[in-house]
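Lab notebook, bench 4. Still working through the backlog of constructs that have no structural model yet. Next entry is a single chain of 271 residues. Request: give me the structure tokens for it.
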Amino acid sequence: MELLPISTPHCRIERDGHVVVVTMDRPEARNALSTDMLVGLADAWAYVSAEPDVRVAVLTGAGGTFCAGADLKAMGAPSEDPRVRERAARIPDVHWKGLLRDPGALPSKPVVCAVEGYAVAGGTELLVGTDLRVAAESAVLGLFEARRALFPMGGSAVRLPRQIPYAFAMDLLLTGRSVTAREALEMGLVNRVVPDGRALEEALEIAGRIAECGPLAVQAILRTHRETLGLPEAEALAVADAIGWPVIGSEDAKEGARAFRQKRPAVYHGR
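Model written out:
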């Protein structure tokens, strides 16, 4: 993989063809959020959206842990890296952008999450901002904020009841208890549970399958979901039509039909 220059001391950003892998890289602190990490995450999501040949991102953590939440001291302290300090000053609401909370700054391509170890508090909030989620067998998830008389500012109080059944969402939010990967799977919070040490491998396999699909179609499906949340069905279908018809008429759609007829893999170019 190619290490991208937008990486920071606590966030490693790599690219392999159509796939960008974003690794929270502060294992000595169980990848707790810091200024260096949030700037790296924000820049990674902007890069994924801006690069036309990038089709999917994978988010994971180094050292067998996903993310143990916020490190308030590290998030408030200036970085020792001058580039990170400059970016932190220049990016509005850098923390919300990094945490996948800012609706206007979400990546236009899917994000697949690979969880090993702890993904708690801000770690679970990050997971809730992703599109597909793989958890290792011994992973621990949870939103602990209520137990500490805090509020889940990463968006989970709104997002979680929209993503999983209400009773499950309230169980997590109001009790502040942790759940196992298997419980998270039963709730619908994660897509797959794999043996320990295999979450990233599985997430990369999923990302590879997404990257093989027509990129215009994938992005249009994601955009339609986001833009129709809360709309009545008739209005939502009108939005879906406006987004979907240009995809149906695209060169990629013609290539998909040709490849099917010719019994070969399709080669998509995003146009």
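Notes after review: The radius of gyration is 19 Å. The chain has a mean pLDDT of 96. Flag for follow-up if needed.
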